[in-house]
## 1
Amino acid sequence: MAETNSSSYETSWADQWDSNPDPAPQTKKSGNGTTSKYGKKVGEGFEKTKVVASTGARKVKEGTSAGLQWIKDKYHKTTQKR
């Protein structure tokens, strides 16, 4: 009985019948520089997002640390009373 074992090295059905290369995506070029203007704004937006995410992560870390310390303190207080 012959086994059919497919791997990533074999070609797919579409690759067997398509001899044309995949077309490259077309990029629109504008002559008035709006692409660079919007790109700059998007970059600034990402920078703001990164700062906000970093601040949020730091607050979560500090809150978690404070919460764990509170639990440790409560545990040690109850074990010392015994």
## 2
Amino acid sequence: MASTTVNVVRYTALLGGVFYGIVHRRSLQKAHDAEVKHHAIHEREHLIEEAKAAFKRKQESGKDGVVTDPEDPRFDLEKLIAKWEAESQ
């Protein structure tokens, strides 16, 4: 049989470990939540910048009717070359 002192030390170590685990888990969760929030904010900023750039391209292309973005399905190389020739003269 274990003495009373040994049992006190065992249960103290057990409760200390449980308490440490709870505190450690909370600190890890807090750091993870901060990282998720940081990522969400930067992702939102990135999407806003992309939307602004797309809107700017749309506004610029609407002025003369020539689509200058080669990724756009309405892109026409002949119209773009004709536009450049007209601007150079």
## 3
Amino acid sequence: MAGQLESVPAVEIDPDGTFKYILVRVQRAGGAEHRDVVRGTAAAEFHNHIFEKVNPEMEKLGFECKCLGGGKIDHNSKDKKMRVFGLSTGYGKADHAVAVEILKKVYQDYEITWSDDKK
């Protein structure tokens, strides 16, 4: 089971720009093992639009999802920098420190920071 959980990509975000993101806990239905993942896109007008896309994808694979909160990511691929900030009105503020640790595993050569700033 854990192998299948590890096959869920840790990060799926837009390659550039400022956009909404959510921190999602993915786990096998009824299981204790979980994995937290980051999902974000400028195509989402609201944070729940991201969750509404992720949740059915994960359910097809036999996983349950829970949104742990949201915020925004400012992704500058040219300068290899990311800033995680803000919050979700509907889901509350994600633990940006956790999101940054997940992002750093994928974007190892980036400078990634976070703050509780709204903008």
## 4
Amino acid sequence: MGGGDLPKGVNLRDAVRCAIEDSSFSVVILSREFASSQFRLDELVQIKEQHAAGTHACLPVFFHISPDDDCATLVVDSGSGGCFHDCFNRYKTQFTYRRVHAWIQAIAWLAGISGWVLTAGRSAI
């Protein structure tokens, strides 16, 4: 079994949570579809919490999203394109205010970190 293999039956969510806890660095790729996964949003909250504790660094990659635009705006602006707005409107009815607010704060936090911007055939740091 290689270093990245998981034995059958291991809960992927728990394995990823442990991997984030055991690491000191994460690369987060934020795209317009990022918010479609509560799993990814939970991971981002965990990364943000570990960063706040001083135990984790994060490099965001903005894939067809500009960090100059407040990424949190993508959550509330239905004209932004992408699925942030629709996803978060749905989440507000499915999850607690505290959990949804943590996700929104984590996206805003990520937008404030200097990272890579990848757009149609171009990249910039």
